[in-house]
Amino acid sequence: MLRTIAMMQPYLFPYLGYFQLINVSDVFVLGDDLQYEKGSWMNRNRILGDGQPKLITFPLKKGHQYDRINERWLSDDFDQQAQTLLRKIEHAYAKAPQREQVMPLLREILEYPERNLALFTEHSLRRLCQYMGITTPIFRGSDLCLPPVMDKQDRVIQIARRMDGELYLNPIGGIDLYCPARFRAEGLLLRFLRMDDDLSYPQLNHPFVPALSIIDVLMFNDRKTLKDMLGRFGVIEGRETRPTLHLA
After folding, report:
1. Residue 198 pLDDT > 60
2. Looking at the whole model, is its pTM more than 0.90?
3. Which residues are CB-neighbours of 151 under 8 A, at least 6 positions away?
């Protein structure tokens, strides 16, 4: 088997595909030193409320435009905000079959005292992985001491090399960012993970709403079912050309 490396920005309670990527990889790197993107999923997500997707947000202190993720901080009143979020989740999933198992985990995560966004998110991802039985080693990109300004493609190639990778696996959403030929020139394979299109599960009596936070997946599925769902994906090759993109 090829040694598989994957990397993603640290997201709070991301969708199931994020955890499929961690689970199938031999090493997973958190891009905590990447630039924070306003309006991204780094500090917000969606849960199910009355059969509809509802946005939840983890408020941050004000920062600068070019701050890295590990330079952003949760708001000074996050203790109160966290309790509000917990009540919202409890209400939304009052009838969910796994509520009694999942709510203590969510409470532990949201009451974690760390206020640095990257470290808070890292803790949440590690605890969620532990709950789902995912044992992949997780590293921080900031510990690799890469140059602060790099082409995105060069960055992941350098990370894969440092982790002795043979294959770099990326979510399907990034298929236009990376060129397989460039990776082959560096002795690496490039592939993309795509969650099965027909992956669904009962959400009480509502029509299925896909691509919600992992919170929703946990609330409606026991651990045995979760293990099966982690394997519901395909791996495809990328395109041979891509636009030139740079990381500031």
Report:
1. yes
2. yes
3. 244, 245, 246, 247
CB atoms within 10 A of CB 117: 26
- Give pLDDT tens digits for 186-197: 999 999 999 999
Distances (CA, A) of 116 to 39, 81, 106, 199: 18, 15, 18, 34
pLDDT, tens digit, for every residue of 78-130?
999 999 999 999 999 999 999 999 999 999 999 999 999 999 999 999 999 99
Report the alpha-carbon distance of residue 240 to residue 178 in Å, rounded: 8
Q: CB neighbours (10 Å) of residue 106? A: 23
Q: What is the 3-state secondary structure (H, E, C) of the chain?
A: CCCEEEEECCCCCCCHHHHHHHHHCCEEEECCCCECCCCCCCCEEEEEECCEEEEEECCECCCCCCCEHHHCEECCCHHHHHHHHHHHHHHHCCCCCCHHHHHHHHHHHHCCCCCEHHHHHHHHHHHHHHHHCCCCCEEEHHHHCCCCCEEHHHHHHHHHHHCCCCEEEEEHHHCCCCCHHHHHHCCCEEEEEEECCCCCCCECCECCCCCCCHHHHHHHCCHHHHHHHHCCEEEECCCCCCCCCEEC
Q: What is the pLDDT of residue 1?
A: 87
Average pLDDT over residues 154-170: 96
Instruction: Tell me what the pLDDT averaged over the chain comes to.
Output: 94
The tokens for 144 are 């690799």
Distance (Å) of CA 67 to CA 43, 133, 192, 208: 14, 33, 28, 37
123 Cβ contact partners less than 8 Å away, ≥ 6 residues apart: 109, 112, 114
